[in-house]
């Protein structure tokens, strides 16, 4: 055999290095500073502990089922089949922020409602909404910094106020969120709570024209503030919801707020002026409640980027981060859950 | 007598699919390790690209079964190396076909919406099942990693044949016509 040409060895070595480097780059090994879904989920676990089988955030929740009736009004702005005058089945989940599944459900001023609309053509619309019209931060990096700043002090079991203050001082974009929470007393019930999409999305009409929009669910039940002393039970809001739904279904109007041309569509900390046009797109009815341990919402990843044709993600950087982090949480908890169910099966 | 090269359609498919498959595996890794807008972009690319590669893989397998492979050149490789090479080709065909099928059935088992094709959703491959979803979701990762390793070995072996051994093995897949 002839002597191996040096150039050949160089080319082969370079190929090997390139293939390894490409993988290392894709996997984030080459960039330890990259914010990954894994880091965000570990951040939640650091703050709240590991609760196997549960969502890493909004861990305490309850499943609900019902339907949405479109009225055709929003079809002018979006081709999404859900806005036509049809009835679309919905699986939902009321929850409270935080990664601890045994946290008292009225302990946070924020409530959340996640929905999955199952459209007739196999499409789905998933949305995760909060009871605040704006979010505290507008980038995944600031979200992660907020998570770290809120890490409980091992001595007190509570976040260090000085650390939190330093975070808020360094993040003036959190001011509208904090002002809103301060000015609005928490609601007395899930069913009299207004829920907001947080992020903006694009509505796409039949001609392909895109209109930026946010959505909100306006309760038909009248808002009442949470009473002092109502918080003795482990989950007063869920208990109240059981009573409410036993008497009859709860209803919300789905309102689409249409942005004006210069309104920010990529900043979840900035609400649009209240004067912006609101479209009443239909009525949400929630009828039945099922505990999340074996409810239909348990294994759903309420990824807000799962959208039907006619609705598209905006450039809001929180959307991609929510999608990535929720997927990581879903991967972990479904794996844990399958192991738990298999173990129970063996015992049986 | 058998040709020394793979049939031209197989060679064309090989060079069309090779970069797409490598990109696909890296896209799959990348979309799970970033929270930047790349996550959404890569996820949007991943599903239609996977479906396209599944269609090409089926065509390619059919052509491979019809046309066969070039005859082994006894002077080129010892039998054991030849068997190892053949086994690695079988492995890569298996991965190529399995990855999109696992992805498709994983989405079905997890209750996720399936990609739309010409305005219609793909049919579900199986009913929603937590246990199946968890198994398929892990399998999607592990088979993908195995495929990337196999592809790396394949590329380095091909480069060794082409540049160091110069034994004509690489010509079997080269686009250049060889009599």
In CATH, the homologous superfamily of chain A goes by the name Catalase core domain
Amount of helix of chain A: 25-40%
Count up the domains of chain B: 1
CATH topology of chain A: Catalase HpII,  Chain A, domain 1
Name the CATH class of chain A: Mainly Beta
Give a count of the beta strands of chain A, DSSP E runs of length 2 or more.
10
Shape of chain B: elongated
- What is the tally of helical segments of chain B? 4
How far apart the termini of chain B lie comes to: 12 Å
| Order of secondary-structure elements of chain A | HHEEEEHHHEEEHEEEH
Q: Mean of the pLDDT scores of chain A?
A: 95
Strand content of chain B: under 5%
Distance between the termini of chain A: 67 Å
Largest beta-sheet details of chain A: 10 strands, antiparallel
What overall form of chain A do the CA principal axes indicate?
Answer: globular
Would you identify the regions of chain A where 5 or more consecutive residues have pLDDT less than 50? none
Helix content of chain B: 55-70%
Number of domains of chain A: 1
List the helices and strands and how they pair.
The complex is a heterodimer of chains A (348) and B (179).
Chain A: H1 6-27, H2 37-48, E1 61-70, E2 87-95, E3 112-118, E4 124-130, H3 140-149, H4 161-170, H5 175-183, E5 195-196, E6 201-204, E7 210-219, H6 236-247, E8 250-258, E9 278-291, E10 311-313, H7 317-347
Antiparallel strand pairs in A: 1-2, 1-9, 2-3, 3-4, 5-7, 6-7, 6-10, 7-8, 8-9
Helix pairs in contact in A: 2-7
Chain B: H1 8-31, H2 38-67, H3 79-109, E1 116-117, E2 120-121, H4 130-165
Antiparallel strand pairs in B: 1-2
Helix pairs in contact in B: 1-2, 1-4, 2-3, 3-4
């Amino acid at each position: 055999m002839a002597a191996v040409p040096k150039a050949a060895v160089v080319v082969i070595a370079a190929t090997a290095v390139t293939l390894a480097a490409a993988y290392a780059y894709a996997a984030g090994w080459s960039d330890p500073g990259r914010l990954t879904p894994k880091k965000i989920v570990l951040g939640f676990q650091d703050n709240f502990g590991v609760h196997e089988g549960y969502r890493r955030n909004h861990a305490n929740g309850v499943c609900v089922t019902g339907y949405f009736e479109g009225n055709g009004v929003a079809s002018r702005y979006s081709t999404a089949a859900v806005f036509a005058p049809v009835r679309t089945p919905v699986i939902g989940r009321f929850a409270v922020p935080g990664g601890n599944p045994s946290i008292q459900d009225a302990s946070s001023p924020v409530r959340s409602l996640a929905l999955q609309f199952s459209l007739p053509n196999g499409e789905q619309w998933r949305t995760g909404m909060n009871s605040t019209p704006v979010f505290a931060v507008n980038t995944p990096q600031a979200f992660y910094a907020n998570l770290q700043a809120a890490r409980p002090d091992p001595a007190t079991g509570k976040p260090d106020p000085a650390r939190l203050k330093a975070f808020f001082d360094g993040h003036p974009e959190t001011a509208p969120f904090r002002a809103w929470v301060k000015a609005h007393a928490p609601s007395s019930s899930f069913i009299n709570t207004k829920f907001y999409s947080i992020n903006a999305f694009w509505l796409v009409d039949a001609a392909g024209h895109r209109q930026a929009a946010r959505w909100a669910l306006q309760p038909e039940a009248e808002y009442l503030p949470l009473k002092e002393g109502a918080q003795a039970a482990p989950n007063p809001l869920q208990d109240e919801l059981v009573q409410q739904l036993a008497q009859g279904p709860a209803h919300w109007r789905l309102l689409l707020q249409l942005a004006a041309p210069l309104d920010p569509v990529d900043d979840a900390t900035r609400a649009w002026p209240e004067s912006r046009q609101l479209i009443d797109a239909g009525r949400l009815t929630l009828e039945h409640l099922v505990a999340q341990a074996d409810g239909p919402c348990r294994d759903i990843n309420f990824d807000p980027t799962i959208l039907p044709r006619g609705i598209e993600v905006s450039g809001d950087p929180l959307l991609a981060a929510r999608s990535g982090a929720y997927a990581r949480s879903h991967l972990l908890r479904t794996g844990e859950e399958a192991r738990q169910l298999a173990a129970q099966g063996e015992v049986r | 007598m058998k040709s020394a090269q793979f049939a031209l359609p197989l060679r064309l498919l090989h060079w069309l699919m090779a970069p797409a498959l490598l990109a696909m595996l890296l896209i799959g890794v990348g979309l799970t390790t970033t929270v930047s807008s790349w996550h959404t972009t890569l996820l949007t690319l991943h599903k239609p690209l996977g479906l396209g590669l599944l269609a090409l893989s089926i065509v390619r397998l059919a052509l491979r079964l019809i046309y066969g492979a070039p005859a082994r050149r006894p002077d080129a490789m010892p039998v054991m190396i030849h068997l190892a090479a053949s086994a690695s080709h079988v492995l890569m065909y298996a991965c190529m076909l399995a990855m999109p099928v696992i992805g498709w059935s994983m989405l079905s088992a997890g209750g996720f919406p399936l990609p739309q094709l010409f305005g219609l959703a793909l049919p579900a491959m199986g009913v929603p099942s937590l246990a199946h979803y968890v198994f398929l979701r892990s399998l999607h990762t592990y088979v993908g990693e195995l495929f990337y390793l196999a592809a790396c070995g394949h590329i380095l072996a091909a480069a060794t044949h082409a540049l160091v051994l110069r034994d004509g093995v690489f010509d079997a897949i080269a686009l250049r016509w060889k009599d």
